[in-house]
Each structure stands twice: as C-alpha cells, then as structure tokens.
Amino acid sequence: RLSLYTLIPSILVAVVVAYLSFFASPAGISKVQDIFQDVKESNSLELLTSGRFHADAKNGRVTYVEQIVNDGQQMRNVFSAQSGSEGELTVTFAQQGQIETGEVQNTRYLVLENGYQYAGAPGEKMLRITQFEKFGQLMAEPTASKSSYKKVDARTTASLLASDKLEDKAALQWRISLVMIVPILALIAQALSRTNHRRGRYVKMLPAFLIFIFYLVLLNGARDAIEKQKISLELGMWWVHGLFLALALLLLFGSDWWRYLRNSTGDKKPKLAED
C-alpha cells in the first residue's frame, strides 16, 4: 500500500520530466547552440560598442570607436592600439572604417580610411608615422566557447524516432531513461526511508545519494557503449533500469521473502510416535 502511495506522485513527476526531456530540453539546447554559433560567426564590429574601449587579449589590441552607423556596418573616429614584438606599440587613428571580405577563403579585413599610424617602442626616439587614405588589416577569426552539449541533444524527439543512427537511438533511450528513473528511484527512496530512532533519520541519506549517482553513471556508460557499438541496441539502457528495479524490489520485500523462504524450507520437527 505504501508503494502504491509512493508511485502515484512519482508518476505525476515522471509526466513533467517527460515533457522536459522530450520537448523543452531539446528546444532549450537548440537555442543555446544557436547563441554560441551566432557569437562564433559574428564580426568584430558586432562585438564593439560605441563610446567604449574593447580589449582583445588574444591579439593584444585595444579598440575604441566613437560611433557605429549604418546598422553596425561602419565605424567613425576609430582608435586602435596594438602591442607587437620587442615591445613595439602601434597606434592608429582613422576617420572611418568598416569590415571587408577578401577573395581568399573569405578572409576579413578591417579597412580604415583617412588616418595616421604611429609605430615605435615607448621611450625610444625612433617613431614611424604613416599617413594613409586607405589601410587594411587582416582580422583573426573570432572564437567562442564551445557548448558542452552534443548536437544530437538539440534534435527533436520526432527526428530521433525517424532516425536509424546509433547516436540518435542512444539519445532517444537516454530521454526515455530520464522518465523511467523517477518511479524506480521513488521505490528505492521508500525502501531506504525505513529506519529507527537509534540510527537517526538521515543515516541512509549517503547510500541514497550514492545509488542515484551510480544509476546515472551506468546510464551514461550504457549510452556511450551504444554509440560505440560495444553493446547491442536491444540491450541498450534497459538492463540498467532492470538492475535498479530489482534492487528496489529487493530492498522493499527482500526481508519478507527471506522470512517466507526460511519458514517454507525450515526443518520440521518429526512427530513422536504414540505409545
């Protein structure tokens, strides 16, 4: 009866987890990956803000733009300072600038117009001054932090159902597994909740956490094994759920089963023959 009372709310929680796993989570991961991709593909002008200094630690460059116009396609009153080898510093001023794409492998250049460039080492008397009408500088490709999610995690559940790839099938089993673990863990939690006043209420909290972590680790390992064809798709992650379901039943009813087994197979005293 207690197990039934435990399963009813756990099934309701499993329904919520199913919605998150099958629909909400893939949509959210897809949005996150789109954001990372947009940052990776964005040019430096999109990362600049009018009236603020922008530091690029990778290239050792500091840039200041007074104004960005034409929907972010053109800069006005540009200041740029970049440190070079042997302590040389290059400072550039220009009235305007924009990003232009080259013909070779879609390389991009920062093209400045009507300005001056000063190059030299601080404290030295030698200083190179260059006046230019148009000056182009090769830009390094912007980098962005990589998302920790797999691409398959962003795919819809319907597309995973229609796919025959092992990676997609493993991802589908993973989403189903997130739903299945809820009632199984609820039964394990009920079994571990049995205690007495001498041991305290929280003595079984650590074993509960360890079981939960071990459950997830095995599921992750099974998913990886499916993708690498180390275990069959039919076996998949189902054996993990079967193992922990058996553990839950053993914890719940194991003592009763053991007592019943002992009573049914115990030695019976032989009856004394009547005189």
Can you tell me about this structure?
The chain is an alpha+beta fold and 275 residues long. The chain has six helices and six strands. The chain has a six-stranded antiparallel sheet with strand order 1-2-3-4-5-6. The longest helix has 40 residues, at 2-41. The mean pLDDT is 83.
Order of helices and strands: HHEEEEEEHHHH
Strand content: 15-25%
Distance between the termini: 51 Å
What is the alpha-carbon Rg in Å? 33 Å
Tags for this model:
22% strand; 47% helix; 6 helices; alpha+beta; single chain; 275 residues
In brief, what are we looking at here?
The chain has six helices and six strands, in the order ααββββββαααα. It has about 280 residues and is of the alpha+beta class.
How is the secondary structure organized here?
Blueprint: H1 2-41, H2 44-47, E1 53-56, E2 61-69, E3 74-83, E4 89-101, E5 108-120, E6 128-138, H3 157-162, H4 166-192, H5 205-227, H6 238-265
Antiparallel strand pairs: 1-2, 2-3, 3-4, 4-5, 5-6
Helix pairs in contact: 1-4, 4-5, 4-6
